Automatic annotation (TrEMBL):
Residues 234-511 form the Ionotropic glutamate receptor C-terminal domain. It holds the Pfam family Lig_chan. This is Ionotropic glutamate receptor C-terminal domain-containing protein. The keyword Cell membrane applies. It is found in: Cell membrane. InterPro entries: Insect_Ionotropic_Sensory_Rcpt (IPR052192), Iontro_rcpt_C (IPR001320).
Amino acid sequence: MVIGGRPYVKDVLLHRSFRNTINALYLAIHPDTLATTYTGLLSHSRHIYQVGEPHVWREAWLYRRCLYCNNGESGVRYIYHWKHNHFLTNVQLFHGDVEFKDLGGHSLRYIAVHYFPYIAFTPDTDQPLSKVTPIDSLDYRLILAFSEKMNYTYSIYGEPDNSWGEDIDGEFSGLCGYLQREEFDVSTIIVPTALRLKAANFIRSYPTDLMTVISLKPQPLPKHLAFIRPFTGTVWVAILVSVMVWGILLWLLTRTRSHITGDESIQLNTALLYGWGALLAVPPPDPSVSTSGQMMVGWWLLFCLVFFTGFQSTLISHLTVNRARTRPPETMEDLVKADGWKWGIEPWILSGIPLEYFTRHTDPVVIKIYKEIEVLNADEALEKVSKGQYSLLDLTYYITIHVLSYYADANGHTPFYISKNGFTFMSTFGWGVRYGAPFYHRFHKLTLQLEATGITNHWLQELITQRVKENRAKTHTSQKERLNQNSEELNGGVVLGLDHLQGAFYLLFLGSGVALVMLVAELFFSITPQAFGQLREII
């Protein structure tokens, strides 16, 4: 509250030192009163009176500073004309929150750093600090909503260095620096830190963008090994041993019986081939006429029925629904534990707060990640990811838009897996506001309302989908689509073709080759000298 003469009302209340003052009163005393010597002014309840000569007191005028009453600018409002022996009654000296619900067309200056989906724009000129034309983005939608709700105009400028701000001996650069010097009123997306909060206020506007791990999706097993996929190696070895042992036991059983009874015994190769044929559900004629042999064959046929049924059903499922061999890494701990795994990050991310996170963290996992991390752009990193044994650390929303825009097929399938277990290295995202801004609390309240109703998150997801469609419309075909050749197989069932059944044909050719070699061996060892001489004469 200021006491003085009427000619100085505007000079005082509109002085720049009161630019952030919400409530300011000016009591203009009558000139005769000011010229009179008095003991002092005392205030009590709603009474203001002079101690001294009562006849000297004439009249006074009470004025109040208003922030946005002069077409959005500061102004002076007359409140009350106070005459001698009158009491100050029914006068509202201070305004409440009503004034900040309507800024009367006040012009706010925004400073921004390009970072979609939060804020995007195109510069109007080539000047370092110039106005920009905003593109549909989350912050721009918030600006439109706030400006309509609170009745203010705005202008948006692009930060020349595209920097959020670094502390240099208490003086900030980037967005924080402009807010600290009060050159701008509000900044778009910024991350609060202990040092930055010394330069400006902060409004939490939306959840933080998590850091995630991008890896190659699990690849299917080689198709030429599809026929052995239903069982593990241990099961296959056990089956092979069972065939051999059962064939030998059957041969020994029939041979022992033939020595005792004189009946004819079966050969070892016949017993082995019978066991193998029964396993393939095409057994040859029963090689045994004895009860004990038939009992042994019966139990073997029951075993083969269970085996063949399980093999057939499992083989069908493996051929129609591809199974992954391994799971991709989800977290930094998975990256460190994986043998021979490498990882990278984009250069623009490894700066500022993310760099502080990696350099100051004491966790051995984070230390190892930072020590062995490679710095390269997104496309170079994704090219390495497509070859396997490599992952990219990136921000979730940013990399999701990039991958779905340039590496997805017509059905939206990509060869890359974006981890769902992202980790937080930044507390939250929001707007920066210069210290003392009267509208700060009103902005904060509107932000909480939009987030609580889910509108902010809805806008965010809508912008991501919209940007992906726009990017894909600009690039109908791309060389990057060669990375999607297996995307259909990775995301659902397929129609079986020769490529999927190549293992069966390899097995057929292998068996035919072995049979041909055995035929030649049989002919070579069974030919007599006379027949060999006749064959030589014919040749």
